[in-house]
Amino acid sequence: MVFEKLFFEVNPGELLFLRGRNGSGKSTLLRVVAGFLPVRAGTLTYGEEAWGRGDAALSEALVYAGHDNALKPVLTLRENLQELSRLMTGGLLAENRIAEAAEIFNLGRLLDQPVRYFSSGQRHRSNLMRFACLDRPLWLMDEPTVGLDAENRQALASLMKNHLAAGGMILAATHDPIGAEGREIDMRDFQPTATLGEEWL
Amino acid sequence: MSTSLSGIFFGVIKRDIRLAWSQGGTGTMALSFFLIAVTLFPFGVGPEPQVLARIAPGVIWVVALLACLISLDRLYQADFEDGSLDDLALSPLGLTGVAAAKIAAHWISTVLPLVVASPLLGILMNLPEEAYGTMVFSLLLGTPALSLIGSMGAALTVSVRRGGVLLSLLVLPLYVPTLIFAVGAVDASAGHVDASQPLALLGASSLLALAIGPFVSAQALRLSLE
Amino acid sequence: MHKFANPAQFNRLADRILPWAKAILAATLLYGLYLALFDSPPDRQQGESVRIMYVHVPAAWMAMFCYMVVAGASFTEIVWRHPLALLAGKAAAPIGATFTALALITGALWGKPTWGTYWQWDGRMTSVLVLFFLYLGYMAIWRSMDEEEKAGRAASILALVGVINIPIIKFSVEWWNTLHQPASVFRLDGPTIDGNMLWPLFTMAIAFKAYFVIVFLYRMKLEINRRKISVLRMSQVNG
Asked: Is residue A2 part of a domain?
């Protein structure tokens, strides 16, 4: 996947939507920003610093939620969150913080159930809880609204608004309206136009 | 909250040990395989005590190696399939450190039980008494290399469906030196010969595997994230 | 670095080299076979079977040489992400595997009349066998993934780890072997080789190398064409 003439910036307190049909590269762009994919040409900067994959500074600045839920079915939701917290910070979460995060998405009574009994919607909401549990300035959200009903969508929107109000940044790939205000970029504008010629491998 | 790298490292080890011994984990499977596969040999080659004593070190080591191998294909694959590998790659510890922690967890949860069970199999295989100490010591010294080398293969095949067969093809040739040194040491003890030279070489191969294993694994895992 | 990644330039270079390589192959192979089969003397102890050496030894040399080509290409690919290097490793590996198999088979055929057995777990044979397995692993990884480049990079990582392993294997199996059978280490080289045998040996070695160059270049051209096709297909699907 190649982008052409792609330029964007996200400032503190700002939400940027990546729009475009399936296959237009929304997820790919998010994964580039998260450092999973190398930037072959062009630059990515965070503040003044260049943003390279595998940087500790990069991993301490962002939370990423992709298509897969990254939950271990044999562990309870609470244990899953604690494992995530320990992986990202080395420490455990306060119990009341977990309880609050669970309330946002109506998962309070499921906290001590193993995730393998969850429906796919419940798993997705469990995955979104990471945004309420980790303190990182930049949120990368890949299709966060998939499978959310109106009520949960509203909960997500208010969670995002709180984050923005606190000076956070959000990059969200979605085609649904979320309910939070933000700028938009359309991935169609950056499709490569030139076809590959004879001289290229 | 400030970040504690050692907290992350030991957190990953604890997490993986727990997952390995929970339902669907590989810890119990490898141990059962080890016990069952060794007991096949007396049926295969006949129960003469001298024959069994002669082949005991090799059989126990080869089967331990295979038991380790069958547990390896899930080392990263489970995390790859459910998306946790993304989180592991984003940990401030760095993917090399995470790989090192996961390898350590694999060794503790899956290989260490094999080492503990090995004297029992020594009895079944009529291993000469003088060789028990060296056998356990050689397993303790050499099996980390199996986990470390295997981790590279597991990371390379993480995105391959049914990668287990491919994994064996990649890893088994790399296991040859470890096996030779280890069995050389146990054989030497069984024959009342000084085993320190093969043991030193065994330790050296583990150290070399330690030097490259986590780093190469991390590079290979990065590939699967692309 | 990437200016050499231009396939058109590579094809021009390959087309310039190929006729020369073919001429060298024809000349050295015919002359070498004549020397090896008719001109050189039979061995005092081994008799006529020593002539297997003129295939066996160059094949073994090429087995190692091809692995170094694969490893060098892998290194270039990993460090500089050079697309032609990726293809070079893929092109060289099957040739190397074939030479390794040839060395093993001719070795076995030579071993039967000389040592009375097709196979001996001697240090050199064992390490060549492991080399063969490394080639198999490298090629298997290439075929295991849908995405060419990913597969190639994974294979490159394996090839580089294999480089570290080769001297260790060689060293360890020789040591292992001498522990068990100190008396039966056979030597193919050494001062016993006569000048009459050395000359055909080198001629055959050059012929083998020319053969490698020819097959390697053709395989590279093939891979480049395959890449072009897949790029075209991709642009048709996405366009």
From this structure: no
CB contact under 8 A, B166 and C176: no
| Angle, in degrees to the nearest 10, between helices B27-45 and B49-72 | 150
Residue after which a domain boundary falls, among A134, A149, A178: A134
B192 or B72, greater pLDDT: B72
- Alpha carbons A29 and A36: distance in angstroms, whole number: 10
Tens of pLDDT, residues B118-163: 999 999 998 988 889 999 999 999 999 999 999 999 999 998 887 8
| B155 → chain C, closest CA residue | C154
* Cβ-proximal residues to C196 (8 Å cutoff; 6+ apart), any chain: C39, C40, C41
State which residue of chain C sits closest to A195, comparing Cα positions: C235
Residue C181: its pLDDT value, please?
Answer: 41
Which two three-digit tokens encode residue C152?
A: 């190639």
Tell me which residue of B203, B97, B212, B113 sits closest to B153, measured CA to CA.
B212
Report, as an integer, the average pLDDT of C86-90: 92
- Give the residue numbers in A contacting C (CB under 8 Å), as ranges: 40, 195-196, 198-201
So what's the pLDDT on residue C100? 95
Contact A87 B7 (CB under 8 A): no
Closest by Cβ to C168, choosing from B166, B188, B205 = B205
Question: Can you tell me the distance from the alpha carbon of A33 to that of B86, in angstroms, rounded to the nearest whole number?
Answer: 13
Measured from the Cβ of residue C37, the count of other Cβ atoms closer than 10 Å reads 12
Place of tokens 């897969």: A68
User: What is the distance between the alpha carbons of residues C209 and A107, in angstroms, rounded to a whole number?
Assistant: 69
C42: DSSP letter: P
Other beta carbons less than 10 A from residue B70's beta carbon: 18
Chains contacting C (3+ CB pairs below 8 angstroms): A, B
Which spans in C81-147 are helix H? Answer: 83-115, 123-144
| Cβ <8 Å between B82 and A62 | no
| Nearest CB partner across the interface for B212, out of C134, C161, C173 | C161
A75 and A127 in a single domain? The answer is yes
Tokens representing residue C163 in the block? 């480089």
In the predicted model, is pLDDT for residue B207 greater than 70?
A: yes
CA A89/CA B92 separation, integer angstroms: 8
**Dist. CA B213–CA B202, nearest whole Å:** 16
Region C3-17 average pLDDT: 81
Clarify whether residues A17 and A53 are in a common domain. yes
Spell out which residues of chain A touch residue B22, defining contact as CB-CB under 8 Å.
74-75
- Structurally, chain A folds into a number of domains equal to 2
Q: Which domain holds residue A78?
A: 71-134
Cα separation, C239 vs C237, whole angstroms = 6
Model confidence pLDDT, tens digit, residues C15-55? 999 999 999 999 999 999 988 888 887 777 777 888 888 89
How many CA atoms are closer than 13 Å to the CA of A21, on its beta-carbon side? 3
> Contact C59/C212 with Cβ under 8 angstroms?
no
Nearest Cβ partner for C227 among A40, A199, A201 = A201
* Residue A39 DSSP SS3: coil
pTM: 0.88
Domain CATH number, residue A41: 3.40.50.300
Q: Among A40, A195, A198, select the one facing C235 at the smallest CB separation.
A: A195
Strand partners, A183: A16
